[in-house]
């Protein structure tokens, strides 16, 4: 049942990204272009997500464990360090160049855009390089 719930949540998230047009890199790049032709529509998507996330977070705090799992899987680290800041900067640069971040890029594969496959290839290459450097 856990996998069915995971699949349904992923499908709902993907539908939300598609309906809000967050799989369109020009929409995201327009939002990031503060001094050009700024497109504020993504801000409304983010603002709409906040109450939903807040409610889900509040509900999770009321339970001792999730419905379909033995426990919560929360990040253990709470330090802001060089690796966290470096990763955020690399993520932001990639988002600003491509107009994609991982979730919307996976959903955008249905569009068949060449750019999304180039982005995903670069993302997986970066993940592989990160994994190799951690072992070294």
TrEMBL record:
InterPro entries: DUF6691. Keywords: Membrane, Transmembrane, Transmembrane helix. The chain crosses the membrane at residues 40-59, 80-100, 106-129. It holds the Pfam family DUF6691. It comes from the Bacteria. The keyword Transmembrane applies. This is YeeE/YedE family protein.
């Amino acid at each position: 049942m856990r996998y069915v719930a995971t699949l349904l949540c992923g499908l709902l998230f993907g539908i939300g990204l598609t309906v809000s047009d967050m799989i369109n890199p020009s929409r995201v790049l327009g939002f990031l272009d503060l001094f050009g032709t700024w497109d504020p529509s993504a801000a409304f998507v983010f603002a709409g997500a906040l109450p939903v996330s807040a409610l889900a977070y509040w509900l999770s705090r009321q339970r001792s464990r999730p419905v379909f799992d033995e426990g919560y899987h929360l990040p253990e680290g709470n330090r802001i360090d060089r690796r966290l800041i470096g990763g955020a900067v690399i993520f932001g640069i990639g988002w600003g160049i491509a107009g994609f971040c991982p979730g919307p890029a996976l959903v955008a594969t249905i569009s068949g855009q060449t750019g999304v496959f180039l982005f995903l290839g670069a993302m997986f290459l970066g993940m592989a390089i990160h994994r190799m450097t951690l072992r070294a």
